Each structure stands twice: as C-alpha cells, then as structure tokens.
Amino acid sequence: MHNRFNAYSLVVLQFSAIGWLVIAAYPFQLNLLALLLCAFGIILGAWAIWVMRVSKIRILPIPHMEADLVTNGPYRSIRHPMYTAVLLFTAGLIVVNFYWINLLIWVGLCTVLIIKLNWEEKMLAEKFPKYKSYQKFSYKLFPFLY
C-alpha cells in the first residue's frame, strides 16, 4: 500500500505542475520556438501512445500485470517518450509566457518525472528479463543526452 501511495503522490505532483504551466501560459502568444516545442511534444506523445496501445498504459510508475515490453516506434531510442513529450510541451508553455516561478515548477516537474522513471525502470527490469539489454541501446529521455 505504501508504494501505491508514493506512486499516486508522484502522479498528483506531475499533473499539478502540468496544470499550473498550462494555466500560467495564458494568454497564449506563441512564438516559433514555443510552437516547435509544443508541437513536437504533442506529436511525440501521440506517437508514443499509439505505439504503446499494444500494451497496458498506466500513469502510475507501476507496470500493469499484463503489460508487454514495447521497444519499437519512439521506444526504439527513448525508453520514456511520453515523459519526454510532457517536458517538451511544458517547456514550450514556459517560452510562451516566461516567469521564473514557471521555470521553477518545470524543474520540479523534471525532478518528479526522473524519480518516477527511475522507479519504473527498476520495476520494468524485474518484470522483463530483456529490459537490461534494452537499456544499453536506448536513452531514458533525450537521445544523445540522457
């Protein structure tokens, strides 16, 4: 039960930060950089969800009992493309209407997602014997960076 509480706490923090950044971006005054970041985030997120549909999507870092290991599409090079998509989209929102508090909240969102993905990776490695080898040829969030 303790793990479920921690999992839900991370999800609440994640969606609270996303909600803050969406609301703080109003009024939307898109510039090219913001538009590119938001668009790429939306496209990557939609592609990741489309590919993941063959498995069981969860917002919790605890894998579904009947999940399959997905390593195609954006998962071929990025192990957590949905998190990458969220970070790109919300970075675009910060560019739309920059305030230091929004940047601080985005850094908090990054921290929550890194905690969440590290926890998720431990559980995925336990569930899927091939996960360790998958980790060797893929990046956590950003190709060639992390």
What summary fits the major beta sheet?
none
Helix-strand category: mainly alpha
CATH fold type:
Four Helix Bundle (Hemerythrin (Met), subunit A)
Inertia-based shape: globular
Number of DSSP strand runs: 0
Individual helix count: 5
Terminal Cα span: 31 Å
In round numbers, the mean pLDDT is 90
**What would CATH call the architecture?**
Up-down Bundle
Order of helices and strands: HHHHH
Helix content: 55-70%
Please mark out the parts with pLDDT under 50 across 5 or more consecutive residues, or reply none.
none
| Number of structural domains | 1
| CATH class annotation | Mainly Alpha
Hey, roughly how much beta strand do the residues contain?
A: under 5%
Task: Give a quick set of tags describing it.
146 residues; Four Helix Bundle (Hemerythrin (Met), subunit A)
